[in-house]
Structure formats: C-alpha cells, structure tokens
C-alpha cells in the first residue's frame, strides 16, 4: 500500500500517506496490547474449555431456571404490589373517615354559631 500511495498524485499522496502512518501506528499498538494480554493470560485456552463445558450444561438447565426465576420474580412483584394496594386502601379509608369527621365538626360549629346569632338577635330585638 505504501508503494501504491507514493505513485499517486501529490495532493492525494499526502493524505493517503498520513492515513497509512496512522493505521500502522494503530496496528503496532494493537499488536503490543495483544502480546501483553496473551502473556498475562497464558491459561486462557484452558479456562475457555472449562467454561464452554460448564456452559453447555448450564444452557440445557437455564431454560427451566429462567422460567422459574421469571415466575418467582413475578410473584415477588405481585406480592409487593398487593402490599402497596393494601396500604393505599388503608390510607384512603383513613382519609375518608377524617373528611367525614371534619364535615361533622364544621357542620356542628356552623349550627352552634347560627343558634348563637339567633339567640343574640332574639334577645336584642325582644327588649
């Protein structure tokens, strides 16, 4: 590629050679990183073999386990929602009782004030 880029026109050649240098430096960086990882994980192939054999067994069992886990998770969520509904029902019931009690208290206060005003007017006008 280097020879092909050098044989092109000068305006295209400069761009292609710059890209080529960049690609070469990236390739060298990747090679050095690959060597570093390969030396650090010398037993990687053995680990992968063990994982693959374990994964084959896990794949056959995992379909049943996924189903069970989904059922378990959905029942757990359902119980949580049921508890939240029970709590909200209690809260709404208490709010309704308070509203009813407050209505009775306000109504009785209004009645007492009307009776007091009526008595005051009766005594004022009867004299």
Structural write-up:
The protein contains 3 helices and no strands. It starts with a helix and ends with a helix.
Secondary-structure map:
Layout: H1 2-6, H2 10-40, H3 44-126
Give a brief rundown of this model:
This protein is mainly α and 127 residues long. The protein contains three helices and no strands. The protein is elongated.
Runs in which pLDDT lies below 50 for 5 or more consecutive residues are none
Estimate the global geometry from the Cα principal axes: elongated
Say how many strands there are: 0
Helical fraction equals: over 70%
Rg over C-alpha atoms, rounded to the nearest angstrom: 42 Å
Topology as a string of helices (H) and strands (E): HHH
**What summary fits the major beta sheet?**
none
Class of secondary structure makeup: mainly alpha
Q: How large is the share of residues in beta strands? A: under 5%
How far the N terminus sits from the C terminus, by CA atoms, comes to 122 Å
Task: Name the average pLDDT.
Answer: 82
| Count of alpha/pi helices | 3
Provide the descriptors you would attach to this structure in a database record.
3 helices; mainly alpha; 0% strand; 127 residues
């Amino acid at each position: 590629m280097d020879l092909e880029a050098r044989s092109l026109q000068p305006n295209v050649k400069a761009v292609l050679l710059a890209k080529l240098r960049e690609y070469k430096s990236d390739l060298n960086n990747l090679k050095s990183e690959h060597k570093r990882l390969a030396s650090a994980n010398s037993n990687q192939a053995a680990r992968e073999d063990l994982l693959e054999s374990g994964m084959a067994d896990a794949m056959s069992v995992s379909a049943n386990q996924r189903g069970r886990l989904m059922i378990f998770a959905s029942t757990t969520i359902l119980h949580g929602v049921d508890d939240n509904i029970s709590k909200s029902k209690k809260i709404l019931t208490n709010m309704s009782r308070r509203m009813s009690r407050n209505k009775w208290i306000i109504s009785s206060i209004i009645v007492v004030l009307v009776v007091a005003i009526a008595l005051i007017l009766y005594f004022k006008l009867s004299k």
